[in-house]
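Researcher: Structure prediction, please.
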Amino acid sequence: MPQTLPHVRRPAVPGLGRAGLTTVLLGAFLPMLDFFIVNVALPTIDHDLAAGPAVLELVAAGYGIAFAVLLVLGGRLGDAVGRRRLFVAGAAAFAVTSLACGLAPTAWTLVAARVAQGASAALLIPQVLATITAATEGARRARALGIYGAVGGISVVIGQVLGGLLVSADLFGTGWRAVFLLNVPFALATAVFAVRWVPQTRSPRAAGLDLPGTALLTAALLALFVPLMEGRAVGWPLWTWLLLAAFPFLATAFLVVERRTEAAGRVPLVPLSLVRIPEMRRGLGIALPYFTGFGGFMFVIAILLQQGLHQDPVAAGWALVPMAVGYFGASLAGPRLVGRFGSRVITVGAAVQGTGLAALAAVALADPAQLSVPRMLPGIALAGIGQGLIGMPLFRVVLSQVPAEQAGVGGGVLATTQQSSLALGVAAVGTLFLGLVPGLGMARALAVVLTVQLAGSVVIALLSVRLPRSVA
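Model: Predicted structure follows.
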């Protein structure tokens, strides 16, 4: 009998057609693109607005912090009031806040607009995964999640390439502002298309907001990310260490409050029963080192190419094209491979990624003075293929057993892990790399960082063998 229940309920949910899937994927692409596209524009922003290192860090970090902090809340709101409604609102808000970023007259105005832009992205992204989970099933869901994984990875690389092209082109004299203004027509089109082609789904049992849980999760994430992202720029004052020390206590308090809320029969922000689903718990365990390593890798490589190898933004972006091609190709081949080999595709992906990282480290150590883009390309391409083989099935694993009525919060938890880990990688791995450069030089510092990330690939491989062999 339990197996027949989904077939009784599912016909009541409108299907997500090809046009609708394209629309929600465009809605996912824009916010993920903006996480990294601003990196190549930061020097120009600094020159035009006299931002200074600390404020410049906030231009990049403010978006990521607001994005990560509000994702679970965005998923819960979508469950309650309707995912298409929140998707449209998020897309429209993303257009408005992108316009505010592009027109910002001062550095601090830009910081405020970036925080608002991150908050609008947090409304948008959870609805994508939730709509795919609630409005598709079987092979169509697997294919849609595979494409979502490909979009997530390719947006990072395209962000670096496109950002360099836009800044260099200086369209109509807009300079760095084009990086933000480009979002406006696409975000507005996404909102219009969603009204026509994206089905409305929501949880049948709307739940109120868990204000204590929301406050504690926000405080915990801020305590972790603010010092990690700002500490190096401001010289690691006492307040950064106090915030980091507070993080484990705030995280523990959040878990206690969520457990008590669920035990009392109320609906917590993050139902711990959801995290107890083996596929979600083990998948999130892989997602943490995977996205942390991915975010750190992209940040470090961008610095190496532009500051170490003196590539201009456009050339630095094109140097990452082999990685993008490898990632995208592996993601597209992923559904067929997963259908045949199951979750072992993740194990193989970790091995391929580790091989690419090891190859890059060997090139950096062999002759640091001769480190060049052509020598790095094989390792970069292998890393991209491995990352694609991990990322594509990972989304399927994490969301495979999430009930349809909890699709929003499930997507929010996964997206929060993804964005938080990307931010953690940029902050922690980037700080390690920049701290090693003065003493070791760029090439040897790169080798040390890649060795650390290689250890992350080993962890992913070990954790992946505990996943169910077959992936729904």
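Model: Residues 33 and 156 are 6 Å apart (CA to CA).
Researcher: Thanks, that helps.
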